[in-house]
Amino acid sequence: MFRYLPLILKNCWRNRRRTVLTIASIGISMCLLGVMVAMFHAFFLSDPTPEQALRLVARNRISFTVSMPLSYRAQIKQVTGVRVVMVSQWFGGVYKDARDPKNQFPRYGIEPDKFFTIFSELHMPEDQKKAFERDRAGCVVGRDLAKTFGFKVGDRLNMTGDIFPGNYEFTIRGIFDSPRNSDEMYFDYEYLEQTMPERRRGNVIMYDILIDNPANSARIATAIDDQFRNSTAQTKTESEQAFVVGFLALLGNVKMFLVAISGAVLFTILLVSANTMAMSVRERAREVGILKTLGFTPASILIMILGEACAISMAGGIIGYLISTLLMQGVAKSPFGGFLPAIHVFDPSVALVCVLAAGIIGVMSSLVPALNASRTTIVEALRSTD
Amino acid sequence: MSEAIIQTTKLTKEFIRDEFHVVALKDVNLEIAKGEFVALMGPSGSGKSTLLHLIAAMDRPTGGEIRVLGHALRELNDRQIAHWRNENVGFIFQQFNLIPVLSALENVELPLKLTNLRKSERIEHATTALKLVGLGDRLHHLPRQLSGGQEQRVAMARAIVTDPSLILADEPTGNLDATSALEVLTILGRLNKEFGKTVVMVTHDPHAAQFATKMHHLEKGELTN
Ligand SMILES: Nc1ncnc2c1ncn2[C@@H]1O[C@H](COP(=O)(O)OP(=O)(O)OP(=O)(O)O)[C@@H](O)[C@H]1O
Ligand SMILES: [Mg+2]
């Protein structure tokens, strides 16, 4: 088999333009596939980080946009295994010109004294934490956000509310570091509460919950939901990871979407490369006849043609995977990345999928022409005049 | 002393496809002894190539028997035939039929890839074969960088590199000028005389036939002498 390798490689290289184009088109498809698989992996298959595993999120059963009473906080706290419960209020609002996407960073109203306990992977100097807790109109921003806008501790940050109408004047009290993208801003939800008219107070969109043991998370989530089973506002409590996926699912059926796109990409590229392989084998029918005359068996002809197709498509697969890691790096760094479960830029399983898929495409696209070539009689093959 | 190396009895080959039906060979009884240099002559379409293909087991007869080098070819399967041909038969075409992407040396090395020889041995054998046909200085040329005569000599080197006992040539000089043709025929003569190879050569050319030790004529698929 390896003896044929030089010939296989030379054959790949004989029609350079076609080979390069084929590798490029397979590379692009495999790159797409790589991104899809990496996303799929991150959403549905990845293990939560140790910090994530300790967090639950409770929301109104109806949807993300419907609130729950503030009184739930104390009730959730009663459930065995719950250590901390914190209000988390999606603020929305407008910062400067809202049409510029970079001004659309997420902002939440939270409870400063609990925030860094629940999100223990976020780090900020102690004195800044103290200052944040003391100032009702204080806020903290992520390192990435601070870099984007050149924010410094002590800067003013003005916003106009939409969900919560009014003008808000925040003072940056701290800048935190995160292992992930940190394009977010957090402030004291009490500030929000006080600007609201009486009738709108006491409504909460989300509770972030810190539990004692990841092993208990399912039990605790059920216990919390059971507690409000007969209330007007029923809850849905789930792991942070599941919550994120659920949130993205608002955009559509993510799983179906990823699978459908990947399928379409694979199918298209299969057709394209099948056509190319059929052409390149047909052109060489005569050479197949020559090789057979020299004593090459039908099996060795089969191996050589399949090998050539695999070499080309796997080169495309490797290139595609490498490009997909660049793209995933981009996704992880984008504001969107802050929402996503941890993304591993170099994911060996994604590499495996890309290269394997490419290999399978190689085999499938060339199997029929290869079988035909290995079966034609020498005399017939030699008579072809391409 | 004349041990029969090729023996056919009532060898018949018909081509049947849809409406047309051609009898390319009809009841050919032929015997070729070891060490002979046979010229196979006859008008175009008389079945010369077909006969050569059957001797090399590149095609299967539709009737009759053929024994080559002690094997009844009918009894071998495709895989066995391939090995058998690799070991025992060198085939030379009118159109040279070199692999265009491979150098002269690589072309000649090709049949040896099917043997157990190591790379260094393969290169050594291939180089020797090329030297034998007078192309020791063209090892790394690609076919398109060679003249027709040189290409045909590379093809001859490829045919003899596995040291087969039988060399079959289908109009080897058909595409060559007189000088190149002479070179090719001289080499075939040497292979026959000095190395004891049995040679069967199809040719139209009476001059070429003079190099042979024996002649057979085909006419409309039948042996005439
Ligand atoms: N694969 C094939 N299919 C159908 N008919 C064929 C095939 N090969 C040969 N024939 C027919 O068989 C007959 C003998 O052909 P063959 O090629 O053996 O002749 P030839 O003596 O070599 O002729 P030439 O001198 O022109 O090469 C011809 O009539 C030819 O048309
Ligand atoms: Mg002929």
3D architecture notes:
In chain A, helix 1 (5-12) crosses helix 13 and helix 2 (16-45) runs antiparallel to helix 11. Chain A is elongated and about 95 Å long. The mean pLDDT of chain A is 89. In chain A, a hairpin with a 4-residue loop joins strand 6 (156-161) and strand 7. The two termini of chain A are 27 Å apart. With 386 residues, chain A is α+β, with helices and mostly antiparallel strands. Chain A is built from 15 helices and eleven strands. Chain B is α/β, with parallel strands linked by helices and 225 residues long. Chain B has one domain (4-219): Rossmann fold (3-Layer(aba) Sandwich). Chain B is built from seven helices and ten strands. In chain B, strands 6-7-8-3-9-10 form a six-stranded mixed beta sheet, sandwiched between helices. In chain B, strands 2-1-4-5 form a four-stranded antiparallel beta sheet, covered by helices on one side. In chain B, a hairpin with a 2-residue loop joins strand 1 (4-17) and strand 2 (20-33). The model of chain B has no long low-confidence stretch (mean pLDDT 93). The structure holds adenosine-5'-triphosphate and magnesium ion. Magnesium ion binds at residues 48-49, 170 of chain B. Adenosine-5'-triphosphate binds next to strand 2 and helix 1 of chain B.
